[in-house]
Structure prediction request, 225 residues.
Amino acid sequence: MKKIAIVMFIMVSIAFSQEAENQSNTERPKFGIGLSFDRNLPASILSDYWNFPIITPLAYSMIHVSIQITPRLRIEPEIGYYIKSDVVRETNGSSYTSESQKFSLVQLGTSAYYIKNFDKTEFYYGAALGLIKINQENRNVSHNPPGIPDQVHKDTWRRTDFYFGPIFGAQYYFSKHFSLGGEVRLVYTIEGEPKEDFGGTGGDNTKSESSKSNTDAKLFIRWFF
Prediction:
């Protein structure tokens, strides 16, 4: 963890020092909106508590807001949201049971990077950091005949993870406003303490600390104005 933090500090320091040398060539800042596409959800949830069967969706998308501070320095806040739910119903005579599972995550972060232009191609490197809020819920309801109260059982699980790491990317400008590119990140994730509640009886909330690192590749589409 310390080594990754040192690498990030060095990369960001280099980017800002190089930018200081280009202050005389500053231009009007550019703003843009981008979409990124990923095969998988963030790696920190691949070992989720109930092994909910939605590990590999077709695509996980995030929205990025590009703010170009100077011709060589850009920051890019990012937000991602994903939700998945399933309902299963089993009938037994005059009564039936319904079971629902719901999974959701919200990802908030930002990145800052140094830019190097070669004609219509742009290369960049920097660092990203943020948090991921994860929620899972399993609800089981036994629907009984009239006069007999229904039985409801609900389990919940929540966790907040933090991530950071260096990024490297490139994009090609098809016009002044439109670009297509890709990005690779080395992501270091610190998993938060899970908060569990099994049917209102609490859960195993033993304090623990876990972390993992992985590489992540994204496809980007950006529109500048």
Residues 7-12, 19-26, 47-57 have pLDDT under 50 and may be disordered. The first helix runs from residue 2 to 20. The two ends are 38 Å apart (CA to CA). The first strand starts at residue 31 and ends at 38.
